[in-house]
Amino acid sequence: MAKLYFYYSAMNAGKTTLLLQSAWNYRERGMRPLLFSPTLDDRYAVGRITSRIGLHADAQAFTAETDLLHAVHSELEQDPVHCVLVDECQFLSREQVYQLSEVVDQLNIPVLCFGLRTDFQGELFSGSKHLLAWADELQELKTICHTGRKATMVVRVDEHGYALREGSQVEIGGNERYVSVSRKEFKAVFAGGKRVKFIEPPEAEDPPEPEILL
Fold first, then answer.
1. Which domains does the chain have, with CATH numbers?
2. Digit-coded pLDDT (tens) for 122-139
3. Are residues 46 and 129 in contact, defined by beta-carbon separation less than 8 angstroms?
4. Which of 16, 28, 79, 193 has a 20 to 30 A CA-CA distance from 146?
5. Pairing of strands 111-116, 4-9
6. Residue 137 annotated to the active site
7. Which of 88, 123, 203, 205 is catalytic?
C-alpha cells in the first residue's frame, strides 16, 4: 500500500543524495520515478536536482501555484508512474501537501518528500508543518553540529559567523551562510550573540556509485 513519507533534517544530512539514490533504484528495476523540484531552488539550474557529492537528475520544476495532483495525472496519460519524489519539500504549500496525499490515496503511488523542518529562526516551514501533520511515515536524517551534538536546527549567519535574526524565510544565492547546529548551540548563536564556528567541507572527490537500497 502506498504511503506519504517525509524525510527531514537540518542542512547537509544527505537528503538530496538519498532522493537521487531512491530514483536510481527505481530506474534500475525498470520503474519510472517522477521527480519534482521547486523553482525557488535555482542554485544549479531550475528543474535539476543536484547533490553536494555530484549526483544529479532532471526534475519537473514547480511553483506555489502548481497543482501537483494534476501534474501526476498528466504524466500518467503518457507512461506509468511508480513513485513521486519531491526535493526541498519545505517550500510546498498546504494545498500541495494535500495534493500529494491525494496522489497516495487516490492513485496508490508512494510519495517521498525530502526537506528541512525549520527555518533560520527556528520556525516550521509551511510544507514541513503539514507533512509532519499528514505524512504516514516520518524519518529524521541525522547530521552533526560542530559541537559534536546532533544538529536539529539551521542558523543563518553573516561572513563573520554571527546570526542574522531578521529577513525573509527564503534566501537563496546570497552572501549569507547556513549552518546546521544543535538546539543548545542555536540558542547560544541566535539569541545569545555567540559566533558560530565554520567547518569547511573537504575537497571534492569523484562521486561514489549509488548503492542499491533494498
1. 4-141 (3.40.50.300), 142-196 (3.30.60)
2. 999 999 999 999 999 999
3. no
4. 16
5. parallel
6. no
7. 88
Q: How far is CA 135 from CA 16, 21, 40, 61, 169, in A?
A: 19, 21, 23, 22, 23
- Rounded distance between C-alpha atoms, residue 39 and residue 37, angstroms: 7
Q: What is the pTM of this model?
A: 0.84
Q: Is 24 in a helix, a strand, or coil?
A: helix
List, as own/partner pairs, every contact residues 115-118 make where C-beta atoms lie below 8 angstroms and the sequence separation is at least 24, other chains included.
Answer: 115/6, 115/7, 115/8, 115/15, 115/86, 115/87, 115/88, 115/89, 115/90, 115/91, 116/8, 116/9, 116/10, 116/11, 116/88, 116/90, 116/154, 117/8, 117/9, 117/10, 117/90, 117/152, 118/153, 118/154
On whether the CB atoms of residues 9 and 140 are closer than 8 A, the answer is yes
pLDDT, one tens digit per residue, over 13-28 is: 889 999 999 999 999 9
H or E, element range at 61: strand 60-62
How many whole angstroms separate alpha carbon 140 and alpha carbon 133? Answer: 15
